[in-house]
Amino acid sequence: MSNTVKVTEVLSLTHDVKQIRTEKPNGYQFTPGQVTEVALNKKGYQEEKRPFTFTCLPSDDYLEFVIKSYFDHDGVTKQIDEIQIGDELIIDEAWGAIEYKGKGVFIAGGAGITPFISIFRDLEAKGEVEGNKLIFSNKTGKDVILEPYWDELLGEDFTSTITHEKIEGHENGMINMEFLKKHVDDYSQHFYVCGPDQMIKDISRSLKQLGASPDGIVFEK
Length: 221
Ligand SMILES: Cc1cc2nc3c(=O)[nH]c(=O)nc-3n(C[C@H](O)[C@H](O)[C@H](O)COP(=O)(O)OP(=O)(O)OC[C@H]3O[C@@H](n4cnc5c(N)ncnc54)[C@H](O)[C@@H]3O)c2cc1C
What we know:
Blueprint (H helix, E strand, L loop, with lengths): L2 E12 L2 E7 L11 E6 L9 E4 L8 E7 L7 H5 L7 E4 L12 E6 L4 H13 L6 E6 L8 H8 L3 E5 L8 E2 L4 H7 L6 E7 H13 L5 E6 L1
The structure holds flavin-adenine dinucleotide (FAD).
């Protein structure tokens, strides 16, 4: 069943990422890591549904999404960049993409961080963050979503790597076998990987060779 909800808050998190809050329909339920199909309630876009992940807590009285816009083609996310308070979204029911199964290493590329926002906010609310690590890969320093939040929440357990430039305080380069060996000792723990297709394939292959069984979601082809 779909619901129409009004946008109540819009915040720019980076040059191409917006945090969007909406009304929450009565009784609407999801678990951290779940997603829903979203369409814009405007002419020509009502049938253009795209999957986006909830970044709020199930107990919040609003819904929140963190959405990266692609300006290189006329898709839905280009329209989302122009969204205003009072505009409407059509959302479906929540469905599973990734779920927290226990302490481990979270590896995200770009907008692939979104399911981990909800999962870490949930762990934070329960006081269970300790023992989890986040490795976050982005092209440039200005692409890192919620960097101050991760720094404060995770401290040494947050590693940011930047692939297209060198910046002090960040690793430089792709997450490959060598990178993993440097940052992770235990491959029997959970591994959660989310990002572009090729990244999931490459990292999952390296993790498997190191003895891990990763859970992965592809966000972009
Ligand atoms: C389970 C799941 C959860 C997701 N959650 C989130 C989330 O929380 N936040 C988020 O930001 N994203 C999320 N995504 C990704 C998001 O759904 C896509 O970015 C979105 O569908 C793109 O919509 P679009 O209409 O702009 O692009 P589409 O037209 O659907 O195109 C999809 C992709 O194809 C490429 N592409 C298509 N046409 C062109 C073209 N002409 N030129 C160049 N490139 C092109 C782009 O790289 C684009 O990302 C999620 C994806 C999945 C599968």
